[in-house]
Batch of 2 targets.
Target 1
Amino acid sequence: MFNAVAEPRRRAILDVLAGGEQPVNDLVHALGLAQPQVSKHLRVLREVGVVDVRDQGRQRMYRLNGNALKPIHDWVSTYERAWSERFDALDDVLEDLKQKEEGHGSDE
Amino acid sequence: MFNAVAEPRRRAILDVLAGGEQPVNDLVHALGLAQPQVSKHLRVLREVGVVDVRDQGRQRMYRLNGNALKPIHDWVSTYERAWSERFDALDDVLEDLKQKEEGHGSDE
DNA sequence: TTGACATATGCTCATATCGGCATACGATAC
DNA sequence: GTATCGTATGCCGATATGAGCATATGTCAA
């Protein structure tokens, strides 16, 4: 999953699909890539479940399945404290408590 | 950045570092990997800024820099609507509005 | 200085990955 | 039916990536 999304062009495909269901050819034109490459990237994205396909006549309509990205979101969220303002505030509180603790605790 | 984190072992390193600053050898033992591989992975992580180093005697202390993960968080968050309950609720509201609109709109 | 320790780097091999091209396959149009 | 469109797949060559091993570099201890 992480691997599938590590490819810039695959992320580009997902970004286009975020705008709605698209047949392969529209993706080809939207991204300026060769059709076989797009099909290959779509295959990878399909295999990890981040896109779904639907046959419609001779076209294959691809649509985004954002659910598959949740594992990434969850993983990266465990590191959120680094940039989240909420956690900054929490750090301040903890720092305060620590100061007080050291104040009337034993030495150092 | 996405690429750096696409490697399972590199994510494992970050997970260990989440527990606090560590010298290379501790990472080696914690992960059961060969020391050169750990150094190489650390190099990649360093190059994208997700870890920082500090020299301490003959050891090199590595620590996590979660800030570097924010781009990933931001990117994946744009797809959050797929699984977020808040967005599910919003969808319900929108669906309601749509029903009403169709109710007293033109045909279909 | 010499030696041991901690880490980084270089080399090689095996494997994966991507692009480009040709082509196969399925569905529709004629 | 045959032609054509839309898409997928196979093959090739180039490049990247990771493991394993040896070794270089830097730091401290004796």
Note: The first helix of chain A runs from residue 2 to 6.
Target 2
Amino acid sequence: MSSSAMTIGAAAKRAGCPVATVRYYEEIGLMPEAERRPGGHRLYDETDVARLIFIRRCRELDMPIGKIVALLAISDDGARPCAEALDLTHEHLAAVRSRLNELRELERTLAAFAAECAQTCCQGSSATCTLFSELREPARRGGAARPT
Amino acid sequence: MSSSAMTIGAAAKRAGCPVATVRYYEEIGLMPEAERRPGGHRLYDETDVARLIFIRRCRELDMPIGKIVALLAISDDGARPCAEALDLTHEHLAAVRSRLNELRELERTLAAFAAECAQTCCQGSSATCTLFSELREPARRGGAARPT
DNA sequence: TTAGGACCTCAAGTTCCTTGAGGTTCAAGA
DNA sequence: TCTTGAACCTCAAGGAACTTGAGGTCCTAA
């Protein structure tokens, strides 16, 4: 538990991301400036790796960098109320759910288009393909009145 | 049904997108080079608007530009088999479904984290918040063996 | 000693637009 | 006819989150 210094390659491997990404996080200030060996190579310890994993985990959860910065600030200052972090999480959860709903609708629409084509026209040529006619229709959401 | 020439502003409005986007589509070759008035203003007709709506619709369905280019090529050459378009659509549908599954998992994970924090720690400070400890754990997907 | 792998620093590319600056053109009202 | 003011024009750069590439240095092990 003493000398846990490792190269950027080892740290990146532990966090499961490319080396270039680690440098990028340092560049934008998500990661602190790494110590260096005399030759210039970066050095990382367990704390760095934990932070890196934290960041990657958040990114896997699709959080934008800005939100991760905010979370790290709360974490770095151990005295701030945990409720702040929970708020951020709920905010992000809402964004994920909203995107989820969009994608569900999207899937339905695409599947319907494909089914129609498969049933009625897919032996023919593109000139009569229903996919193209459907795609040329403006999307009908809810019950919006169409312009005459 | 004769003189349906309109400005870029009118065309953009019909397609429901910003004017700058229409110019951008021309720049990257998704839209053909528009005719111009003597003063330089672009002119569009119904065919252009239909193409624009097609493109926007595809983008709403989250298709990458490259796939739209491919679809338009099939559509432009009316003789190509409709099955090609259906293939592209299925391909895209698969991408959408895959993303959908990712997001569903994401939502579960986030919701679980938030619930845990809300139940056990959210009165406290960030130093003991479960959100941070959870986020520092590498994600456990399926049953992958953990490195020792 | 030397090979080659890992590392270094810029710089530019990716995707799909959006925003901004600085300058024309056009339609319409006075 | 003149004059607004909106709509248009052309670059150029920015944004998110990295990735890729070029050209060069450092380190480890045989």
Note: Confidence is low (pLDDT under 50) at residues 141-148 of chain A.
